[in-house]
Amino acid sequence: MSDTVDPLLPLTLLEAVRTVDLPEGDLEAEFVAELRNKRFGLSDTVFAQIKRFTEAVKRGKPASFDEASGIAKLIGRRPDAEAVFREAGRSLARQSYRTISPFVRKLTRVLPALASRPIALRHMRRISARYTGGKVRRVGSTILLLVPKSVTLDAAPRLGGCAYYESAFRELMQLLVGGVGAVEHVRCASRGEGTCEWRAEWRPIGTAQ
To answer: What is the pTM of this model?
Structure first.
């Protein structure tokens, strides 16, 4: 049986392409068809795939890892690939964050750090495991995200595909703890280091240790 990923992963990649390709401001109707032909994110193909993966998310139906990887490689051919991956990563974090109950979300923001951080860490682990296939662990004042099998591995030049996971990690930290320090890509399978790993400062920016 082939590997699978949560359908939200390929959905956010495609939604990011559409978002980046959307023109700014209002357009005259006669220009719409021309734009749809020129901008991949506005094409019927992307629209149909977004619809399909949206239904898969609703039904909880896994998506093929190879298909998700193929979408990532297609994005990687674009000159703005890194920007698309970053937009997709932020979207993944925001949408997965909404799977946490509003009550718990509020708790992580209003409780003292001593009480809120274990709650935040538990949800970071759950979300990372489900949506990225990753593992989260705490080491002192830092949080590590380990992704054994990256969908975006070698998808774009200069490790551009890695921006997807980095952006998702940063945004999720921001949402859960109200801020995040530096996020560092400490290991990368593309560099022959076996796996991909990111490290983030646990405490919000501007707070005391």
So the answer is: 0.88
